[in-house]
Amino acid sequence: MKFEDRMSRSIKQRASLVVLRSEFSNMGSDSQVGRVLARFVANGLLVRVSKGAFAKARINQYTGQPTPAGTLEMIAAELFKKLNISIAPSTLVAEYNSGKSTQIPMGTVVNTGGRRITRKVTVGNNTLVYENALRTAAG
Listed GO molecular functions (predicted)? Predict the structure, then answer.
């Protein structure tokens, strides 16, 4: 079985949306994994959302282009869970959910607590913005 076929089967059998490059380190060399992941992105099987992180893709029925199989919120939550980084809803989302505010928050903002994160996570035209306990809306 070809290396590309083994990786493709591994991706399809996963229940998760997010696939990390490091998850394939035991299958082959870094250059092999990188070439195959680049081929998967070119073929529309995966969409790159961050450095070393990819999301499963599906074909958009209107544009015919590959789009991630989930929303930015779903992908970000799963990505940070795999990276062992704890995130929480932003203060605006927390106020809306608790009933303190009637304003619906726009954009995707997550609270990182006291931790400083610089990883850029992008799905389509939407980019994840971070806020922490020290400063709000730092992105």
Answer: hydrolase activity
CA distance 112 to 93: 14
Split the chain (139 residues) into runs of 10 and give each run's mean pLDDT: 90 94 91 94 94 93 90 93 90 86 84 88 91 61
| Ranges in the chain annotated CATH 1.10.10 | 1-69
Distance CA 3, CA 11 (A): 12
- Which helix (H) or strand (E) covers residue 39, if one does? helix 30-43
CB 84 within 8 Å of CB 22: no
Cβ-contact 21, 53 below 8 angstroms: yes
DSSP-derived 3-state class of residue 57: strand
Q: Which fold has domain 1-69?
A: Arc Repressor Mutant, subunit A (1.10.10)
